[in-house]
Specification:
Layout: H1 9-25, H2 29-42, H3 47-59, H4 63-76, H5 81-93, H6 97-110, H7 115-127, H8 131-144, H9 148-160, H10 164-177, H11 182-194, H12 198-211, H13 216-228, H14 232-245
Helix pairs in contact: 1-2, 1-3, 2-3, 3-4, 3-5, 4-5, 5-6, 5-7, 6-7, 7-8, 8-9, 9-10, 10-11, 11-12, 11-13, 12-13, 13-14
Length: 256
Protein backbone atom coordinates (compact mmCIF):
# COMPACT_ATOMS: atom_id res chain seq x y z
CA UNK A 1 0.00 0.00 0.00
CA UNK A 2 2.82 2.40 0.90
CA UNK A 3 5.28 1.43 -1.82
CA UNK A 4 2.55 1.08 -4.42
CA UNK A 5 1.11 4.48 -3.48
CA UNK A 6 -2.40 3.10 -3.76
CA UNK A 7 -3.75 5.05 -0.78
CA UNK A 8 -3.70 8.62 0.47
CA UNK A 9 -4.80 10.55 3.54
CA UNK A 10 -6.04 8.63 6.58
CA UNK A 11 -5.63 5.21 4.99
CA UNK A 12 -2.03 5.93 4.13
CA UNK A 13 -1.50 7.24 7.66
CA UNK A 14 -2.84 3.92 8.97
CA UNK A 15 -0.44 2.02 6.73
CA UNK A 16 2.53 4.01 8.00
CA UNK A 17 1.33 3.54 11.57
CA UNK A 18 1.03 -0.24 11.16
CA UNK A 19 4.42 -0.52 9.53
CA UNK A 20 5.94 1.67 12.22
CA UNK A 21 4.50 -0.59 14.91
CA UNK A 22 5.96 -3.63 13.16
CA UNK A 23 9.37 -2.01 12.95
CA UNK A 24 9.13 -1.14 16.64
CA UNK A 25 8.59 -4.79 17.52
CA UNK A 26 11.72 -5.61 15.51
CA UNK A 27 13.51 -2.82 17.42
CA UNK A 28 14.23 -0.96 14.20
CA UNK A 29 13.46 2.23 16.06
CA UNK A 30 14.71 4.89 13.65
CA UNK A 31 12.71 3.41 10.77
CA UNK A 32 9.68 3.10 13.02
CA UNK A 33 9.94 6.72 14.07
CA UNK A 34 10.19 7.86 10.45
CA UNK A 35 7.02 5.98 9.56
CA UNK A 36 5.13 7.27 12.59
CA UNK A 37 6.20 10.84 11.87
CA UNK A 38 4.71 10.43 8.40
CA UNK A 39 1.51 8.97 9.85
CA UNK A 40 1.11 11.97 12.14
CA UNK A 41 1.79 14.47 9.34
CA UNK A 42 -0.90 12.79 7.23
CA UNK A 43 -3.39 12.60 10.11
CA UNK A 44 -2.53 14.87 13.06
CA UNK A 45 -5.58 13.61 14.99
CA UNK A 46 -4.58 9.92 14.91
CA UNK A 47 -4.16 8.81 18.55
CA UNK A 48 -2.68 5.38 17.74
CA UNK A 49 0.17 7.01 15.84
CA UNK A 50 1.06 9.19 18.83
CA UNK A 51 0.88 6.19 21.15
CA UNK A 52 3.10 4.11 18.88
CA UNK A 53 5.61 6.93 18.46
CA UNK A 54 5.58 7.45 22.20
CA UNK A 55 6.63 3.84 22.62
CA UNK A 56 9.51 4.37 20.21
CA UNK A 57 10.67 7.35 22.26
CA UNK A 58 10.30 5.31 25.47
CA UNK A 59 12.38 2.48 24.06
CA UNK A 60 15.03 5.09 23.24
CA UNK A 61 14.81 6.24 26.89
CA UNK A 62 13.55 9.63 25.73
CA UNK A 63 10.75 9.73 28.26
CA UNK A 64 9.92 13.43 27.92
CA UNK A 65 9.06 13.08 24.23
CA UNK A 66 7.25 9.83 24.98
CA UNK A 67 5.10 11.56 27.59
CA UNK A 68 4.30 14.40 25.19
CA UNK A 69 3.04 11.90 22.60
CA UNK A 70 0.96 9.98 25.14
CA UNK A 71 -0.49 13.27 26.40
CA UNK A 72 -1.58 14.09 22.86
CA UNK A 73 -3.07 10.62 22.38
CA UNK A 74 -5.28 10.90 25.48
CA UNK A 75 -6.18 14.50 24.62
CA UNK A 76 -7.52 13.27 21.28
CA UNK A 77 -9.09 10.13 22.74
CA UNK A 78 -9.63 10.50 26.52
CA UNK A 79 -10.64 6.84 27.00
CA UNK A 80 -7.66 5.34 25.16
CA UNK A 81 -6.57 2.70 27.70
CA UNK A 82 -3.33 1.68 26.00
CA UNK A 83 -2.12 5.28 25.89
CA UNK A 84 -2.67 5.59 29.64
CA UNK A 85 -0.86 2.30 30.20
CA UNK A 86 2.10 3.39 28.10
CA UNK A 87 2.23 6.79 29.73
CA UNK A 88 2.29 5.07 33.11
CA UNK A 89 5.23 2.98 31.93
CA UNK A 90 7.03 6.18 30.89
CA UNK A 91 6.39 7.69 34.33
CA UNK A 92 7.92 4.56 35.84
CA UNK A 93 10.93 5.12 33.61
CA UNK A 94 11.27 8.57 35.15
CA UNK A 95 10.85 7.17 38.66
CA UNK A 96 7.45 8.77 39.35
CA UNK A 97 5.48 5.87 40.83
CA UNK A 98 2.49 7.97 41.92
CA UNK A 99 1.81 9.25 38.40
CA UNK A 100 2.46 5.80 36.99
CA UNK A 101 -0.14 4.27 39.29
CA UNK A 102 -2.67 6.94 38.37
CA UNK A 103 -2.25 6.15 34.68
CA UNK A 104 -2.41 2.38 35.20
CA UNK A 105 -5.60 2.89 37.19
CA UNK A 106 -7.04 4.89 34.29
CA UNK A 107 -6.00 2.24 31.77
CA UNK A 108 -7.78 -0.45 33.80
CA UNK A 109 -10.82 1.78 34.27
CA UNK A 110 -11.23 2.22 30.52
CA UNK A 111 -10.28 -1.35 29.61
CA UNK A 112 -10.62 -3.83 32.52
CA UNK A 113 -9.35 -6.62 30.27
CA UNK A 114 -6.02 -4.95 29.43
CA UNK A 115 -3.68 -7.54 30.93
CA UNK A 116 -0.48 -5.53 30.53
CA UNK A 117 -1.89 -2.69 32.63
CA UNK A 118 -2.34 -5.07 35.57
CA UNK A 119 1.20 -6.33 35.09
CA UNK A 120 2.61 -2.81 34.99
CA UNK A 121 0.58 -1.70 37.99
CA UNK A 122 1.74 -4.81 39.82
CA UNK A 123 5.34 -3.86 39.09
CA UNK A 124 4.72 -0.32 40.37
CA UNK A 125 3.27 -1.73 43.59
CA UNK A 126 6.21 -4.11 43.85
CA UNK A 127 8.62 -1.18 43.62
CA UNK A 128 6.72 0.34 46.53
CA UNK A 129 7.07 -2.96 48.42
CA UNK A 130 3.28 -3.24 48.45
CA UNK A 131 3.41 -6.97 47.85
CA UNK A 132 -0.26 -7.70 48.50
CA UNK A 133 -1.43 -5.38 45.72
CA UNK A 134 1.41 -6.51 43.44
CA UNK A 135 0.40 -10.13 43.92
CA UNK A 136 -3.25 -9.37 43.18
CA UNK A 137 -2.37 -7.54 39.95
CA UNK A 138 0.02 -10.20 38.68
CA UNK A 139 -2.61 -12.84 39.41
CA UNK A 140 -5.16 -10.88 37.38
CA UNK A 141 -2.66 -10.49 34.55
CA UNK A 142 -2.12 -14.26 34.53
CA UNK A 143 -5.88 -14.85 34.54
CA UNK A 144 -6.35 -12.55 31.55
CA UNK A 145 -3.23 -13.37 29.53
CA UNK A 146 -0.60 -15.66 31.04
CA UNK A 147 2.93 -15.16 29.78
CA UNK A 148 6.53 -15.64 30.83
CA UNK A 149 7.05 -12.29 32.56
CA UNK A 150 3.77 -12.47 34.47
CA UNK A 151 4.81 -15.75 36.07
CA UNK A 152 8.38 -14.54 36.68
CA UNK A 153 7.12 -11.35 38.33
CA UNK A 154 4.58 -13.13 40.52
CA UNK A 155 7.24 -15.70 41.37
CA UNK A 156 9.50 -12.86 42.49
CA UNK A 157 6.79 -11.57 44.83
CA UNK A 158 6.33 -15.05 46.28
CA UNK A 159 10.12 -15.36 46.65
CA UNK A 160 10.44 -12.01 48.39
CA UNK A 161 7.61 -12.89 50.79
CA UNK A 162 9.21 -16.28 51.50
CA UNK A 163 6.49 -18.34 49.83
CA UNK A 164 9.11 -20.49 48.15
CA UNK A 165 6.93 -23.38 46.99
CA UNK A 166 4.64 -20.96 45.18
CA UNK A 167 7.63 -19.11 43.74
CA UNK A 168 9.05 -22.38 42.41
CA UNK A 169 5.68 -23.27 40.89
CA UNK A 170 5.47 -19.94 39.05
CA UNK A 171 9.03 -20.18 37.78
CA UNK A 172 8.27 -23.70 36.63
CA UNK A 173 5.24 -22.45 34.73
CA UNK A 174 7.41 -19.77 33.12
CA UNK A 175 9.80 -22.50 32.00
CA UNK A 176 6.90 -24.53 30.62
CA UNK A 177 5.50 -21.59 28.65
CA UNK A 178 8.90 -20.48 27.32
CA UNK A 179 11.23 -23.49 27.57
CA UNK A 180 14.06 -21.85 25.64
CA UNK A 181 14.14 -18.77 27.89
CA UNK A 182 16.65 -19.20 30.70
CA UNK A 183 14.81 -17.06 33.24
CA UNK A 184 12.28 -19.62 34.37
CA UNK A 185 14.93 -22.32 34.76
CA UNK A 186 17.46 -20.25 36.67
CA UNK A 187 14.92 -18.73 39.03
CA UNK A 188 13.45 -22.13 39.87
CA UNK A 189 16.97 -23.50 40.22
CA UNK A 190 17.75 -20.83 42.79
CA UNK A 191 14.66 -21.74 44.84
CA UNK A 192 15.51 -25.43 44.66
CA UNK A 193 19.00 -24.75 45.99
CA UNK A 194 17.55 -22.67 48.83
CA UNK A 195 15.30 -25.59 49.69
CA UNK A 196 18.12 -28.11 49.60
CA UNK A 197 17.04 -29.82 46.37
CA UNK A 198 20.53 -29.87 44.90
CA UNK A 199 19.81 -32.35 42.12
CA UNK A 200 16.76 -30.36 41.03
CA UNK A 201 18.73 -27.13 41.18
CA UNK A 202 21.52 -28.64 39.13
CA UNK A 203 19.07 -29.83 36.47
CA UNK A 204 17.50 -26.37 36.25
CA UNK A 205 20.85 -24.61 35.94
CA UNK A 206 21.88 -27.08 33.24
CA UNK A 207 18.85 -25.87 31.28
CA UNK A 208 19.46 -22.21 32.11
CA UNK A 209 23.03 -22.41 30.84
CA UNK A 210 21.93 -24.24 27.72
CA UNK A 211 19.88 -21.19 26.75
CA UNK A 212 21.96 -18.39 28.32
CA UNK A 213 25.61 -19.44 28.69
CA UNK A 214 26.67 -15.84 29.32
CA UNK A 215 24.98 -15.60 32.73
CA UNK A 216 27.68 -15.67 35.41
CA UNK A 217 25.20 -16.21 38.25
CA UNK A 218 23.98 -19.44 36.69
CA UNK A 219 27.54 -20.77 36.45
CA UNK A 220 28.13 -19.75 40.07
CA UNK A 221 24.95 -21.32 41.35
CA UNK A 222 25.43 -24.52 39.37
CA UNK A 223 28.90 -24.72 40.93
CA UNK A 224 27.26 -24.51 44.36
CA UNK A 225 24.95 -27.39 43.46
CA UNK A 226 27.86 -29.49 42.21
CA UNK A 227 29.87 -28.73 45.34
CA UNK A 228 27.02 -29.88 47.56
CA UNK A 229 26.70 -33.06 45.50
CA UNK A 230 30.39 -33.83 45.88
CA UNK A 231 31.51 -32.91 42.36
CA UNK A 232 34.43 -30.68 43.37
CA UNK A 233 36.10 -30.71 39.95
CA UNK A 234 32.86 -29.72 38.24
CA UNK A 235 32.25 -27.01 40.81
CA UNK A 236 35.72 -25.53 40.33
CA UNK A 237 35.24 -25.49 36.56
CA UNK A 238 31.91 -23.68 36.92
CA UNK A 239 33.30 -21.18 39.43
CA UNK A 240 36.13 -20.41 37.01
CA UNK A 241 33.63 -19.86 34.20
CA UNK A 242 31.57 -17.54 36.39
CA UNK A 243 34.64 -15.47 37.26
CA UNK A 244 35.75 -15.44 33.64
CA UNK A 245 32.44 -13.82 32.69
CA UNK A 246 32.24 -11.56 35.76
CA UNK A 247 35.63 -11.14 37.48
CA UNK A 248 34.17 -9.25 40.44
CA UNK A 249 31.52 -11.87 41.20
CA UNK A 250 31.29 -13.13 44.76
CA UNK A 251 31.00 -16.89 44.48
CA UNK A 252 27.90 -17.41 46.58
CA UNK A 253 24.34 -18.30 45.65
CA UNK A 254 23.08 -15.06 44.15
CA UNK A 255 19.46 -13.93 44.15
CA UNK A 256 18.30 -12.62 40.80
Amino acid sequence: MIDGKTETGNKLAGAYCNRGRGLTEKRQLDGAQTDLNKAIRLDPAYPCAYTNRGRVYALKRDFDHALADYDEAVRIEPTFALAYNNRGDAWLGKGDIDRALADFNAAIKYNPSLAIAYGNRGYAYQRRRDMAHALADYTMQIKLRPDLLAYINRGNVYRDTEQLDRAAADYGEAARIAPTDARGWRNRGMIRLYQGDNKGGLADYDKALQYDPADAYSWNNRAQAKLRLGDKAGAIADFKKALEISPGLSVVIARR
